UniProtKB/TrEMBL annotation:
This is Dephospho-CoA kinase-like protein. InterPro entries: 5peptide_repeat, GrpB/CoaE, NT_sf. Gene3D superfamilies: Beta Polymerase, domain 2, E3 ubiquitin-protein ligase SopA. GO terms for molecular function: kinase activity. The keyword Cell division does not apply. Keywords: Kinase, Plasmid, Transferase. PANTHER family: GRPB DOMAIN PROTEIN (AFU_ORTHOLOGUE AFUA_1G01530) (PTHR34822), GRPB FAMILY PROTEIN (PTHR34822:SF1).
Length: 337
């Protein structure tokens, strides 16, 4: 593959074909591509500013760890492209096809999708700030639950998005393996941060024996205060975890990871909370109440199953239906007055 680092500004390309070209660490500004073809092209670690691609085909193009600002793709087709660990500001896709594209650990600010076909794409650990979409055709998409927790769009947009996707609500029977998986992850984490934390808590529904749950381990790492946070963040980074911010929830710092780096563990969510965190108190109080109150645990499990059955692809309906029971239990365990 030919290799070069280039700087391009105020250029228009028409009917150009690039094959087996490497242009990493390059800068492209005010560029227009019309009816161009890119095959096996590596643009990784590059910067794209004010770019327009019209009637273009991109096959096995690598944009990993690149920066995009002011990009529009019109009537263009992507197949097996990589946008991993990239950042986007003001991106527009119109009348495009995206097939087997990877958007892993990316950040999108102001994303517009209109009349697009998305199929067999991976959206893992993706953050979307401002999302507009219409007339989409979607199939065989892979989303991590971190996408849901990481979305910072309005509730109305999120629910419409999930409805469009047809996301299935999955509630699994309790498994004794969940406690064992938590202990494996806890042991791994303690190798690096044991001196800087108070404790590690298994929270969420997988932490309650006998309760059905979404099969993802929720973990709260408890610290004295934020004076310990940087040391813990550094330790987690050495284990392959990346800091994602608080994702809109105060004093609950989220961390994600690459799937292939942690495939020896069950899927899990990592949060770091100071010991006085309201969110930590909510997690632990709710968990302990369900562990010690069999009637409420049974009632909560029943409503989760009923809601998943009634609203298998309606996230809002599922959350609203079980939310009534959650509020009742919160009142009984002192989380709501």
């Amino acid at each position: 593959m030919a290799s070069s680092k280039i700087e391009l500004n105020e250029v228009k390309f028409e009917n150009v074909e690039l094959t087996n070209v490497k242009m990493t660490h390059s800068n492209f500004t005010n560029i227009t591509f019309i009816n161009c073809t890119f095959r096996h092209v590596n643009f990784s670690n590059s910067s794209f500013n004010n770019i327009s691609m019209v009637d273009c085909d991109l096959d096995e193009v690598d944009f990993t760890q690149s920066e995009f600002d002011g990009i529009q793709f019109i009537s263009s087709n992507f197949k097996q492209a990589l946008f991993n660990k990239s950042n986007f500001i003001f991106t527009k896709y119109e009348d495009c096809q995206l097939i087997e594209v990877e958007f892993i650990r990316i950040k999108h600010k102001e994303l517009s999708l209109t009349k697009c076909l998305l199929s067999k794409n991976n959206f893992l650990y993706t953050r979307l700030d401002g999302l507009n979409f219409s007339n989409l055709k979607l199939s065989d998409l892979l989303f991590s639950m971190d996408l849901i927790s990481g979305m910072t769009i309005t509730k109305e947009q999120a629910m419409a998005f999930f409805e469009e996707l047809g996301v299935n609500v999955v509630v699994a029977n309790y498994s004794e393996d969940w406690a064992k998986e938590f202990e494996k992850i806890k042991t791994d984490i303690l190798k690096k941060i044991s001196a800087d934390i108070i404790r590690i808590e298994h929270v969420g529904s997988t932490s309650v024996e006998g309760l059905c749950a979404k099969p993802i381990i929720d973990i709260d790492i408890v610290i004295e205060d934020y004076s310990k946070f940087e040391a813990v963040k550094s330790g987690l980074a050495s284990l392959g975890y990346e800091y994602e911010g608080d994702l809109g929830i105060t004093e609950r710092e989220a961390f994600s990871y690459e799937i292939d780096q942690k495939n020896q563990f069950m899927e899990h969510h990592i949060y770091v909370c100071p010991k006085h965190s309201v969110e930590l108190n909510r997690h632990v109080t709710f968990r302990d109440h369900l562990r010690n109150n069999q009637p409420d645990c049974q009632k909560y499990g029943e409503i989760k199953r009923a809601a998943a059955k009634k609203f298998p692809t309606d996230i809002e309906g599922y959350l609203d239906m079980k939310g009534v029971v959650i509020s009742e239990i919160y009142q009984r365990c002192g989380l709501l007055k």
